[in-house]
Give the backbone structure.
Amino acid sequence: MEWLNRESAPVYLIASRNFLVTCDICDTILDFDPAAEINVQSSQSAALPFLSRYRRIAVAFMECGSEMIARFGIDQTVRSRGGRLVLMGSRAERELERQSRKLRWPVLSRPVSTQMIIGHLMPPDERSGNKSGVCGLTT
């Protein structure tokens, strides 16, 4: 298997059909980390082969809910490459609103702001954290 990572560039994977949110995430990543490598796919099924081919992943932004994450083992793949998983889109937002017990990952909910995206790019020990007690919500 050929690894796709350049030698030292952090990789950010975005699987989303929402063009504007994808552009906001890309712009924020490049402002935060100009050396970043960004891979954008229109769906989770298109992103899955790339997840497996990268040696390291910084953050994977996936437009889906917990059911799809569990079905395809996306969280395990991302974690095995040292990365963090962030859910987004309608399904993830509904799970967040309902405080679903299935939701175990942070959610980038709309309306999306630069500060929200940066919060997901920062390592967990540098973030302000979840002081709300609501699963999936980061502040």
